[in-house]
Amino acid sequence: MRSIRSLIVILALAVLVAFLWRTFAGGGGGGSSAEAPNLGSATGAEEEVVDVPAASARTAKAVEASAQRVRPPELDALSLEERLAAIARTEGEVMQKGPTPELTQRLEDLLAPLFEHPGTLHDVLDNLVARKWKPAGEEAKRIDVVEYGGCRALYWAVVTFHSEQSPYFAEATGRELFLAILSNVPNLQEPVLSTLLEQLIRAEVDGKPLVARYIFEVLELRAFFKEHKTLFSEVLARLGETMTPEERDRFFGTYLSDLTDPVLIGAAIKFLLQGTNPAAALSLAESLFDDPNTPVDVRLAIAQAVVDGSADAYAATQFLAERIEQTRNSPGLWMSLANKPDAYPAIDAEYRNLLANDANPRAREKLVSAMIGASPEDLDRIAKLAYEDPDPKVRGQALMTATASAGWKPTPDAMKDLRSSYATGADPMRTVAAAGNIASKAQQVGATDVRDDAIDFLLDALDDPMASPQAKQSALDALKHHLSDAEWQSLQGKVKK
Amino acid sequence: MKYPLFSLAASVSFATFGALAPAMDVSGTTPTPRGCPDRKATAVDSEYIELGPQTACASGVKLKNGEVWVPSCPEKLTIVPWHGECHGEPNEGTRCMILGDLPVSTGTCSCDSVIFIGNWVVVGCTCSDFVASGTVENFGTQDCV
Fold it and tell me: Residue B3 and residue A101: Cα distance in Å, rounded?
């Protein structure tokens, strides 16, 4: 099965390599292209011929050194399953106790036989694909300790075989294993897929992502396994992080036309915004987003890319606010904006601008939601919005934002202010959610008076004829953490389903 | 309330999708005139959004030859509950209608040790102390008659 996959990969690589080489490697100087192996079956074979003897000698030396250091016999006697579980558990111990020399040595002793017999690592991969070690029944959605150990062993192996500092350095062996894992990505099932893919994406050698050496293969596999192309796009997206602005322009500029792949479009926009001409990239993002033919998921990927990729928080804020009809129901975009360094002044400026014209209340509400990253000094200003903004939903959101902010502290006046906002028409559902925040935070710091006041407010909301079913549901959800099961169950009937 | 970040079992509360709706008649974001638009709401799965820079957890594992693995954890996690949206999905005799808003919650995350529960393994990061940080509009499907 492995050989068939390898053949498919090699054949497929040969078809596109010339095109890809012409497209963006031909100019030379690109870090990724310089790092990537010179593809084509002949070249790949040539590389193996060059590397194998050196690698074999190195591996032989490592085996010899390893043999001189007598491994504990109980470790040598382990079955494959026991070994993989022991790798996972030893890593767990290292994480809990710190990397003591004994634990590190034990991990190395557990891994060494696998490095010495790379065929076993391919067996591990085959078993992961077949989910031979998956837990039974409903538990199959969780990863078994043997499966996790298998993923970790493959991670250590690909990194070790590619590392020139390692006594097990064997680039051809590492290449074969890495490509075998990559070409099996579409065959893997969750949760092994995400575990292994994440480690593959994060694997680094000499401070550079390992996937950078396999750029052509990733592109080819992406083209070959069309139904799984976003998986490979995630791998490609990792590459942009270590590219220069010029490399980003050259590489990602070629992917803007594939409107069926939100992951790659998003990565392309993000990294072009970090390329040599961010203004042009932003215009491109705007026109792609505004094109009525652009699918919804691609639009959202573009918006996320603008938030993540733009160095200009004002531009990112305006991008979202001006497209409020398409962005308002994607809270993640606004939360990402909130988390952007130095975004608060940009968000505040846009909000003030809209408020001055009493314009776009939906955008104002989302802008206020993005103020959650405000410093403690700015929290008073946000709290004031709960009285000042003419729109009830914006006022309700201001209460939510202030009470959800990390720097907010439950003071005795908190509930008094909230009740006052409620009485003057702040949106009930949002106000109730804010009261839930107050109850939780008061509970955390032992401010029982404030907590009890918030609980009373939530109980009253359940009986308020003006409160919407959503507001009552929100109150009921918040009360769950503060009442006994019996008390909480008795309130269920107060919410109209 | 705690959610292991990579857990598939994390649950959130949300209003019933497809329940009967109040008076406002919308298709997407634009109010429609009387008549049946023959559209239904599209289910949008709950979403887990990692926010902030990734923090390296613990000291990681480093072999003698220099290879390192350091698990990481985001600063915050935002959970958008499962909800309905109007994406123009055709369906004879129904309309896509707003049902109301659902709360979106945000929690703070911290690194775990690698934890073994029996034969299972949970790795990475746990997010807790969730608070309501925003809202998402929830749409459902209603018969035109």
Answer: 33
A337 pLDDT higher than 90: yes
Contact check, Cβ <8 Å, A139/B120? yes
CB pairs under 8 A between A and B: 169
Element (H, E) at A412: none
In 3D, which of A2, A30, A6, A46 has the Cα closest to residue A220?
A6
| Nearest alpha carbon to residue A406 among B12, B13, B133 | B133
Task: Find, among A56, A150, A157, the residue nearest to B63 by Cα.
Answer: A157
Flag whether residue B134 sits within 8 Å of chain A, measured between CB atoms: yes
φ/ψ region of B88 (left if φ > 0, alpha if ψ in -120 to 50, else beta) reads left
Q: Could you report the predicted ipTM of this complex, rounded to two decimals?
A: 0.71
Least Cα distance to A401 among A337, A462, A465 occurs for A337
Q: Which residues of A442-466 are buried (b: 16+ CB within 10 A; e: fewer)?
A: bbeeebeebbebbbebbbebbeeee
pLDDT single digits (tens) A209-251: 787 778 777 777 777 776 776 677 777 777 777 778 887 777 7
Domain spans of chain A? 1-242, 374-497
pLDDT digits 0-9 by tens, A425-456: 899 999 999 999 999 999 999 999 999 999 99
Contact A184, A137 (CB under 8 A): no
DSSP letters spanning B73-98: E-SEEEEEPPEEEEEEEE-TTEEEEE
Number of domains chain B contains: 1
Is the predicted pLDDT of residue A419 greater than 90, yes or no?
yes
Inter-chain CB proximity B49 and A336 less than 8 Å: yes
Q: CA B106, A493, A459: angle at the middle one, nearest 5?
A: 55
Note down the domain range covering B7: 2-143
Of the partner residues A107, A142, A143, the one whose CB lies closest to the CB of residue B63: A107
For the record, the structure tokens of B51 come out as 């926010």
Selected for mutation to probe chain B from A329, A444, A477 (highest B CB count within 10 Å) is A329
Q: In this predicted structure, what is the pLDDT of residue A33?
A: 28
Tokens of A99: 């990397």
Q: Give me the numbers of helices (H) and strands (E) for chain A, helices first please.
A: 28, 2
Contact A470 B19 (CB under 8 A): no
Distance of alpha carbon B86 from alpha carbon B99, whole angstroms: 11
C-beta of residue B114 within 8 angstroms of C-beta of residue A95: yes
